[in-house]
């Protein structure tokens, strides 16, 4: 088996279950535990694996609202605005985008009103941010 297919199988198991033990990964990827350990360490060092996370169903998350927010920024302010956006505590994730908006962000707050305040007072208030388009998450389907 090629190293690339071994990496892909190990990553596939981790993407399905980030909490899988080395033994579980080894069994499901059909490799040894030392091989799993070696590849995971290599992938972490190379920055392929950047972290481990839990998938959350927003409907079952009491006392918190989640929105995906499309953000547009004036091109001459892009670097400073993205730097400032990353500092907003309610900003869980921030991605560059090739879609309708320059950036996509996952924003979390206590409730819908608090989320609206974050968008208005912290995101739209930044120099260079020209628009923020929230989509509130309702129910996780998969």
TrEMBL record:
Transmembrane segments: none
GO biological processes: response to amino acid
GO terms, molecular function: sequence-specific DNA binding
Domain HTH asnC-type as annotated: residue spans: 1-72
CDD domains: HTH_ARSR
Keyword terms, alphabetized: DNA-binding, Transcription, Transcription regulation
One Gene Ontology cellular component: cytosol
Gene3D superfamilies tied to this protein: 3.30.70.920, Winged helix-like DNA-binding domain superfamily/Winged helix DNA-binding domain
SMART domains reported for this sequence: HTH_ASNC
Descriptive protein name: AsnC family transcriptional regulator
Organism: Haloarcula rubripromontorii
């Amino acid at each position: 088996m090629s190293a690339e297919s071994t990496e892909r199988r190990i990553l596939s198991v981790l993407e399905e279950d980030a909490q899988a033990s080395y033994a579980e990964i080894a069994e499901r990827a059909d490799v040894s535990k030392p091989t799993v350990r070696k590849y995971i360490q290599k992938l972490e060092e190379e920055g392929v694996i950047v972290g481990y996370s839990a998938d959350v169903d927003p409907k079952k998350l009491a006392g918190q609202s989640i929105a995906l927010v499309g953000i547009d920024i004036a091109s001459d302010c892009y670097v400073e605005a993205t730097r400032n956006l990353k500092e907003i505590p309610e900003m869980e994730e921030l991605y560059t985008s090739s879609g309708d908006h320059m950036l996509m962000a996952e924003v979390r707050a206590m409730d819908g009103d608090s989320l609206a305040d974050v968008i208005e007072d912290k995101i739209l208030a930044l120099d260079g941010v020209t628009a923020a388009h929230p989509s509130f998450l309702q129910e996780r389907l998969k």
